[in-house]
Amino acid sequence: MTGGERTVLVDASVLITLADTGSAALLAGLDGSVVVPDPVRREVTSDPAAKALSDAIDDGWVTCPQSVSTAAVEEAASHLGRSDGDPRGDAVLLAHALVAADPVVVTDDKPRRQTCKALSIPVAGSIGVLVRAVERGDIEPDDATETLYAMDEVGARFSASLVRKAERLIDDAAD
């Protein structure tokens, strides 16, 4: 991880998918401060993801802020189509993105990705984490492709066309 200004906000779905394939540590190499807001952390209850997150926090490359302004959470919930008083992880994650100077949200959740795009918040997913790791040389292209297939097998629910596109992106990143 670099000490850059970017705030990399990771949601539970990406963390779980990467941990299930033994790849959660790839998040450590992302440019910026890796953040898992506390309500998102509380959603990660099963191993291997819970252990991977705990280890990342202990190792200091993930932070779990506990609060963001109520106004930001309410705005985020509104953008997500909710008005309930229960600030779930997705609303708190988006609230952090709304107040951060240079955020990127890392999620595989399609509605959350669409909301981020509508708000002009940069968004990436678990595939983007893999591609970036290949670009950095943190993982070999063949290993990244195997991880891609494993991610699909553990429930990431990638379409066949997305898997083909991801294979091309991994190959291009290796060049």
From TrEMBL:
Domain of life: Archaea
Signal peptide positions (record): none
Coiled coil: none
SUPFAM superfamilies, per database record: PIN domain-like
Name of the molecule in the record: DUF3368 domain-containing protein
Pfam families tied to this protein: DUF3368 (PF11848)
